[in-house]
């Protein structure tokens, strides 16, 4: 597979209170984001466990987490927990020499379709230049 | 394999506009049918017709689990759940596949349909492992504890009593009325309110006492009150209506100049006691709190009163006059007409203390930038409104948060301004944010309404979507107790396990992801369900 044909597979975990609504807004506004993205809804970004992210990396090339802005979490500290967990995961990735950039977290307000599309598209392009994930399980 | 899947029905409803053109729904239906699903494409996207079709579809195929696929489903979710409830089915054995994603991602019709099918299969996978959610009845105590006997607490208590709940009002001081009792034009009105409060049979007032202990959760708090009386009570909800404090900005003053400068609160006391005031009075506003309109209102009212009573020369220095309260513009206009002078400053005016007067040097903002000098017998400055000394201890006791300024942090500033992060605990009035009296009153009535709708039935039906703790796995590490933002987890000493209180849990799942032994699961978002979404399904692009 050449670099040009490479379609990175992205898993998006989004919080019901911001990411989901932003994605809806992006669709309503007619924005187009990459197709090889699978979205998984969670009640709060604090619900995303390390195992979910690691398994997602086994199956795909990158993971994006959409959380509410800091101090605007519906459940007060959920996004801070997610942030801490992400730092922990980046450490693990460093140890097993997988690029840290494959996991990203963005903060969104509940109807920011523009930022949702922009960050997702940029992330997609970044993954394209990084190439396929070495840790991805053989099919 | 197919037999297992066939229990799940798929209900697709028709689309208008772009989605209908992009997706080949009939093709999707037939390819899903080939996989062994019972599939139905609803012709209308009109609500009542849709629901009839939905119910017919479920009855005909004797389905218990269903996937609803369509666009813009978020608003319709409760309608579908209600429909299931009406038919005697569990309202949580349903998932929603948002086909919008398929519409956006692909330009090609066959590819978009493929993606739509993949999305529906994933949703079906999710619902297959979904356990039915039970419903539990919880009884609620019909008593409310109100902390603080200021105007916020009084108004809340009166409205609650009117609604038929019994109220226990606890005040730290030995008298009721709070800050409003010291304000000239509110004095009589507050006294009347206190009198009606004392006459009310449903309200029990406890003076010179404090809350010292709190256990339990919404609907059944056990509170301990100490002070003049020692009491242990059971209440259903708690209203925090404690007051804030006024602090005068710090000045370096000599002994003889101390009497030249006073705060607005001190001035109010002198006005109430009809003390003769000096002939030249200057107000200096916006020195500490620039964003609160409460001091602007007091300033305008006091300045007008002085002008009318003593016909003194009154000059006001301010950064911005905030007149966004009821009748603010009118008050300002009346002040101008009465001959009160207003000067705007950008930098703090220089203040010199003479023997018996204050000299104020102000650089005029407007052109030409001349220096203006004023002499005055009395300088009145606006105070800073600070959180009360008891706030920190009280917050710890109630296990709620304080904001950056030390006031009580509401759950959501915009849509839930009086709720705390814990269910059954409410904030009213100045403990949340210093505010004008009319705002406080409407807040108090609103909160009382909220509590009435919560408690007045005496019991509540709960869908048990709250987190569940596996008691065999729990090692009592207290991680969940510490991380729960809603104080919903308690330790059951007898069984030796942590337990979630369903009424307080808001199903955020933070405890589930923090638990080191994976003992906690969120019924609607189990680990198996989330991980199941990660693997590929037939026809998925990429």
Any overview of this molecule?
The complex is a heterodimer of chains A (139) and B (542). By secondary structure, chain A is an alpha/beta fold. Chain A has a single domain, classed as Rossmann fold (3-Layer(aba) Sandwich). Chain A contains four helices and four strands; from the N terminus they run E-H-E-H-E-H-E-H. Chain A has a four-stranded parallel β-sheet with strand order 2-1-3-4, with helices on both faces. In chain A, strand 1, helix 1 and strand 2 form a beta-alpha-beta unit. The relative contact order of chain A is 0.24. The mean pLDDT of chain A is 89. Chain B folds into four domains: 131 residues, Rossmann fold (3-Layer(aba) Sandwich); 175 residues, FAD/NAD(P)-binding domain; 138 residues, FAD/NAD(P)-binding domain, CATH 3.50.50.60; 60 residues, Alpha-Beta Plaits. In chain B, helix 9 links the parallel strand 7 and strand 8. In chain B, helix 8 packs parallel to helix 14, helix 10 packs parallel to helix 11 and helix 11 packs parallel to helix 12. The longest helix of chain B has 20 residues. The chains are: A alpha/beta (139), B alpha/beta (542). At the A-B interface, helix 1, strand 2, helix 2 and helix 3 of A face helix 6, helix 7, helix 16 and helix 17 of B.
Features:
heterodimer; A: 139 residues; alpha/beta; Rossmann fold; four-stranded parallel sheet; 4 strands; B: 542 residues; FAD/NAD(P)-binding domain; 4 domains; five-stranded parallel sheet; 17 helices; elongated; disordered N terminus
What's the arrangement of secondary structure elements?
The complex is a heterodimer of chains A (139) and B (542).
Chain A: E1 10-15, H1 19-28, E2 37-42, H2 50-59, E3 62-68, H3 78-95, E4 103-108, H4 113-130
Parallel strand pairs in A: 1-2, 1-3, 3-4
Helix pairs in contact in A: 1-4
Chain B: H1 2-5, E1 8-13, H2 18-22, H3 25-34, E2 38-42, H4 47-61, E3 65-70, H5 77-86, E4 94-98, H6 100-105, H7 109-128, E5 135-139, E6 143-147, H8 151-162, E7 166-170, H9 187-199, E8 203-206, E9 209-215, E10 221-227, E11 231-235, E12 237-240, E13 245-247, E14 261-263, H10 264-272, E15 280-284, H11 294-310, E16 313-318, H12 328-337, E17 341-344, E18 350-353, E19 358-363, E20 371-376, E21 378-381, E22 384-386, H13 391-398, E23 425-427, H14 437-455, E24 459-463, E25 468-469, H15 479-483, E26 489-492, E27 497-500, H16 510-514, E28 520-521, H17 527-532
Parallel strand pairs in B: 1-2, 1-3, 3-4, 6-7, 6-12, 7-8, 12-23, 14-21, 15-16, 15-21, 16-17
Antiparallel strand pairs in B: 5-24, 9-10, 10-11, 13-22, 18-19, 19-20, 25-28, 26-27
């Amino acid at each position: 597979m050449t670099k040009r044909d490479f379609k990175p597979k992205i898993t998006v975990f989004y919080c019901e209170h911001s990411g989901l609504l932003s994605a809806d807004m992006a669709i309503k506004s007619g924005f187009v984001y990459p197709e090889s993205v699978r979205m998984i809804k969670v009640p709060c970004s604090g619900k995303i466990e390390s195992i979910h992210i690691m398994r997602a990396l086994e199956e795909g090339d990158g993971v994006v987490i959409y959380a509410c802005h800091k101090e605007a979490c519906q459940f007060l500290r959920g996004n801070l927990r997610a942030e801490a967990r992400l730092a922990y995961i980046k450490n693990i990735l460093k140890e097993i020499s997988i690029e840290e950039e494959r996991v990203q977290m963005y903060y969104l307000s509940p109807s920011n379709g523009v930022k949702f599309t922009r960050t997702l598209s940029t992330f997609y392009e970044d993954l394209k230049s990084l190439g396929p994930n070495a840790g991805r399980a053989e099919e | 394999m197919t037999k297992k899947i066939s229990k799940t029905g798929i209900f697709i409803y028709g689309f208008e506009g772009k989605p209908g053109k992009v997706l080949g729904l009939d093709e999707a239906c037939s390819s899903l049918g080939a996989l062994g699903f019972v599939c139905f494409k609803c012709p209308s996207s009109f609500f009542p017709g849709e629901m009839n079709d939905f119910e017919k579809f479920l009855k005909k195929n004797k389905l218990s689990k269903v996937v609803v696929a369509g666009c813009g489903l978020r608003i319709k979710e409760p309608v579908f759940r209600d429909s299931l409830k009406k038919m005697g089915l569990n309202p949580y054995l349903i998932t929603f596949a948002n086909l919008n994603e398929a519409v956006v991602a692909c330009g090609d019709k066959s590819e978009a349909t493929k993606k739509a099918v993949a999305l529906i299969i994933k949703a079906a996978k999710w619902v297959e492992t979904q356990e039915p959610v039970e419903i539990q009845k919880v009884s609620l105590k019909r008593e409310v504890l109100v902390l603080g006997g200021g105007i916020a607490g009084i108004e809340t208590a009166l409205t609650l009593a009117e609604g038929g709940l019994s109220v226990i009002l606890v005040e730290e001081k030995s008298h009721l009325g709070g800050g409003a009792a010291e304000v000239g034009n509110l004095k009589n009105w507050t006294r009347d309110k206190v009198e009606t409060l004392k006459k009310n049979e449903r309200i029990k007032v406890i003076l010179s006492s404090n809350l010292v202990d709190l256990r339990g959760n919404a609907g059944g708090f056990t509170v301990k009150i100490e002070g003049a009386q020692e009491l242990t009570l059971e209440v259903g909800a708690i209203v925090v209506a404690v007051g804030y404090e006024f602090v005068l900005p710090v000045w370096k003053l000599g002994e003889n100049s101390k009497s030249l400068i006073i705060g607005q609160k001190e001035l109010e006391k002198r006005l109430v006691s009809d003390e003769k005031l000096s002939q030249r009075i200057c107000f200096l506003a916006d020195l500490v709190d620039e964003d609160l309109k409460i001091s602007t209102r007091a300033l305008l009212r006091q300045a007008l009163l002085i002008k009318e009573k003593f016909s003194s020369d009154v000059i006001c220095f301010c950064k911005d006059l905030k007149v966004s309260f009821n009748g603010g513009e009118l008050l300002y206009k009346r002040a101008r007409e009465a001959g009160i002078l207003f000067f705007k400053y950008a930098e703090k005016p220089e203040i010199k203390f003479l023997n018996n007067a204050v000299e104020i040097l102000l650089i005029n903002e407007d052109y030409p930038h001349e220096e203006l000098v004023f002499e005055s017998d009395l300088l009145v400055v606006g105070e800073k409104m600070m959180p009360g000394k008891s706030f920190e201890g009280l917050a710890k006791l109630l296990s709620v948060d304080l904001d950056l300024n030390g006031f009580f942090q509401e759950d959501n500033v915009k849509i839930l301004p009086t709720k705390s992060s814990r269910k059954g605990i409410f904030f009213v009035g100045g403990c949340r944010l210093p505010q004008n009296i009319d705002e406080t009153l409407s807040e108090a009535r609103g909160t009382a309404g909220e509590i009435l709708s919560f408690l007045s039935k005496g019991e509540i039906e709960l869908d048990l979507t709250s987190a569940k703790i596996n008691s065999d796995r729990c090692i009592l590490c207290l991680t969940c107790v510490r991380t729960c933002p809603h104080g919903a987890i308690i330790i059951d000493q007898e069984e030796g396990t942590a337990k979630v209180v369903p009424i307080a849990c808001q199903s955020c799942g933070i405890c589930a992801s923090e638990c080191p032994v994976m003992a906690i699961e969120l019924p609607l978002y189990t680990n198996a369900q989330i991980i199941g979404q990660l693997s590929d399904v037939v026809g998925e692009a990429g």
